[in-house]
Amino acid sequence: MSLLTDEAAMSLQQLVDYFNDRFESEHQSNFRPFILENGWVSGIFGPIRVSSVFAPVHHAANHEQLIGHIAQISVTPYDSSRRIRSLFVCAEPC
């Protein structure tokens, strides 16, 4: 399930494309290490794939008040779907 709307996913795809274009230009390579799939952004680093997705955190007493974001980080082998480690971190003060 994607946590992003179609509009957010589109702008996120543009950002991923921008960083891939810069990587290709700076490293004079055809390799595009950044991927957007199902609302997750991943970076390929050798045999390791690091992925993340963000979700908003709202104040318990006032659901209109955004107080931060939670990032779910996933690290997996690039050539396998077996998850090595998953953790949650707060990307902004909560």
Would you summarize the structure shown here?
By secondary structure, the chain is α+β, with helices and mostly antiparallel strands.
Structural key phrases:
single chain, 94 residues, alpha+beta, 5-stranded antiparallel beta sheet, elongated, disordered C terminus
Stretches where pLDDT is under 50 for at least 5 consecutive residues are 80-92
Helix content: 10-25%
Q: What kind of sheet is the major sheet?
A: 5 strands, antiparallel
Rg is 15 Å
| Number of H- or I-type helical stretches | 1
- Which H/E pattern describes the elements? HEEEEE
What is the beta-strand fraction?
A: 35-45%
Summarize model confidence as the mean pLDDT. 77
Pairing-aware structural class of the strands and helices? alpha+beta
The side-by-side strand order for the widest beta sheet comes to: 1-2-3-4-5
Give a verbal description of the structure.
The protein has one helix at residues 6-27, and strands at residues 34-37, 40-45, 48-58, 66-77, 85-90. It starts with 5 loop residues before the first helix and ends with a strand. Residues 80-92 have low confidence and may be disordered. With 94 residues, it is an alpha+beta fold. The protein is built from one helix and five strands; from the N terminus they run H-E-E-E-E-E. The protein is elongated and about 50 Å long. It has one domain (6-90).
Topology:
Layout: H1 6-27, E1 34-37, E2 40-45, E3 48-58, E4 66-77, E5 85-90
Antiparallel strand pairs: 1-2, 2-3, 3-4, 4-5
